[in-house]
Amino acid sequence: MPVHHSKAVDRRVIRSREALKQALLTLMKQKDFDDISITEIVELANYNRGTFYSHYESKEALLDDIIHGLIGELLQSFRAPYENEEYFRIHELPAHSVKIFEHIQQHAELYTLLLKSNAHSHLREKMFIAIQQISRDELEHPTLEGINAELLSVYSNHALLGLIFYWIENGLPYSPAYMQEQLVKLIQWRPSVAKTKKPGKP
């Protein structure tokens, strides 16, 4: 019996947290995050303030919970090409093994909402820190002599996230498959010469 009771409590906790998350996201479609009150959240979710504070200490903590869940799935998609491999041969990366753009498409509405809100800098920071951490902890990058490994990681991860943010902010104009192919080509592209554009010349 105690086990069944515990499961029932767990289900209620999950249900109430989910209702509070959905209420916050609904309100964020209507107004800036900074202008949303806890009273509005609980009224829309059909709970009381006591219930809210039993789960979250602030609306920022509620937003963090939403972002934490999203980033957890983002990291799963980031791991996909190498999670069952001893060596991750980046320059032999098949486009179909890249899953990060499929994840973004599945949650496009949420990413778009968060990036258009005044919580966008918070999301960007959390995403970069998470990708940087997993890259540091799970991948050992051999580097050319003289190249700072940390700077290389920062450069690579900012480039990846810049591509992702561009795609989202422009309304996902390309398919995930196309983005996967382009990412692989960009990784493999190593130009040695760039033509200058002189004023007055074509």
Automatic annotation (TrEMBL):
Keyword ATP-binding: no
Alphabetically ordered keywords of this record: DNA-binding
UniProt-listed InterPro entries: Homeodomain-like_sf, HTH-type_Tx_Regulator, HTH_TetR, TetR_C_Firmicutes
Family matches, as SUPFAM superfamilies: Homeodomain-like (SSF46689)
Keyword DNA-binding: yes
Protein origin, superkingdom: Bacteria
Segments of the chain annotated as binding DNA: 37-56
Gene3D superfamilies: Tetracycline Repressor, domain 2
Domain HTH tetR-type: 14-74
PROSITE patterns: HTH_TETR_2
PANTHER family the UniProt entry points to: ACREF/ENVCD OPERON REPRESSOR-RELATED (PTHR43479), TETR-FAMILY TRANSCRIPTIONAL REGULATOR (PTHR43479:SF7)
Identification of the protein by name: TetR family transcriptional regulator
